[in-house]
Design a protein that fits this description.
ten-stranded antiparallel β-sheet, globular
Length: about 450
Amino acid sequence: MVDLSAPTWRIYRSKLADPAALEAFKTKLIQWLARFEQFSYLDSNGHRHDAYQAYDLLVGVGCLDAIQARAGEDAFEQLTQFKNQYPQEYLFGYLAYDLKNELEKLDSCHSNPMEWPDLCFFVPEHRISVQDQVLTIVSATQAPEDLYREIHQTKVQTTKIAGNIELLPRIQREDYLHTVEQIRQEIGWGNIYEMNFCQEFYHPTCDLDPFALFQHLRLKTQAPFAAFFRWQAHFALCASPERFLAKRVQKLISQPIKGTIRRGKTEVEDAALKTELFLSPKNRSENVMIVDLVRNDLARSCQPGTVNVEELFGIYSFNTVHQMISTVTGTLSTEVSDIEAIKRAFPMGSMTGAPKLRSMQLIEQLERSRRGLYSGAIGYFAPNGDFDFNVVIRSLLYQQESGYLSLQVGGAIVFDSDPEEEYAECLLKAERLREVLRG
């Protein structure tokens, strides 16, 4: 057992020749991860537009110590104590959506087939990172040069993606359309301004290779906040385009997404769709409402007068869609801890609505599935005080023992929402992930 009070971390560094060498390394690394029951693989996929990205790739592998908790077990307090126990270590983990029940008088009434703990963090045995083409391997238990050779010698399996998995809708189309009308009615009554309404597509028992599947997902989406997380039999295969919350020195950064449109088939069509998204009154309305909510969330933790909207209605292009992304920042108060700042912003406004509390009450009432890790956050704490967490969307969640596979998608409902268009947007988001399942 490693003495974590004074671990001996050994370091190996190597310069990767070019982007092709990095890509080859990632492919082998993902396959190599199959020998571990705990890991967190975080990949920015070369997205250079993000001024706050600290790593091109950051991976925690193996487990020296861990914490897992359910909502109602003082999960955030347990995390605080765990973090204080290891102030000089990286912690990798996630926060599930149902932690909302510790933050407000809320509950979760839907069944929980995935059975994820609501909070899980671990101190990794090995840490692997890439920044500016420099590969760094740090290990507490092995010579990092040996780990590099193991990864380099890994044979990449050409496993066929299970193409016969048909996902079932948890909510039927007519029920979905009717529920959107109910939400519009709530908005008309003045109870809320906007609500993120999600639905699940699932398979109760399937057998698949999550490593081959994630590799396919990563290559197809090239998402800037991609994550591949394993906790024993639980897998999250995440192609998220969205950052929930990050900290750089004393600066908090949140980048909510509201506004999605498909990519065009030609350059002319693609440019026209980007312009359509940017000028869309509905998408601007959705985006600005969530930006206001995020500003209020950050203001609870930041020094007065420091919360600022650095970018409003930014249009960013990904492999399959264009997204409208805004950036909100603020200077964290010295009297507020990192975990307290996360608590005050969680769950993220882009996945709840405004006002947040009433939206979450309606989410529990109107949705048909427990969100669990979906619309939670995966990320890390660094020993220098920085942290970074994504929003768990565009994801496949898989329970290997039962074979349960879950894909949830959603969108923001405002008074001007057209139910048919909202349903079509959900199908568009789900189809991208279904394409990955088909191989």
